[in-house]
Amino acid sequence: MVEYVIAGSEVDIMRELLSKNDQPFFAFFRVIELKPFNKDTNISFLREGLMESGVDCTADTLEKAYELMGGFPAWLNLAGLRMVEGGCDKWFILSGSSVKFVIESELSNLNPNQLRLLKALAVGTRLNKSSVRKPNRVLTELIAKGLVEKPG
Fold this sequence. Notes:
The chain is an all-alpha fold. It has helices at residues 10-19, 39-52, 59-69, 73-86, 97-108, 112-123, 135-144.
């Protein structure tokens, strides 16, 4: 029995390889998709993980971590590691070189049109007012990269 964990931009590529009957790995794997945690699960996950390391953070700090990381388990794990290092300083979470590296590497692979749309989505701008050429195509590209998720 072998388990693989795939995250980020590779998710859609793997989903395509595993779920389409004309692909070589169709029906060879059981896919379990781990969705972002809700707020309560997120806070519980962080609190319990931090307690194992002897760290007790305030509810405010745990909520800020949820806001910053969006409930994604891999990002929460990284936030928890940063919180252990930084003594629960909620802004220390974003100051680590590993966090910067992940963010910069994800963003460096985007073209200017994709960056504009990602920023528009982040601040809540409507697509038709985002000044992005071919926003539907760009949105599809961001979904394929694993940076945007289409609500199911």
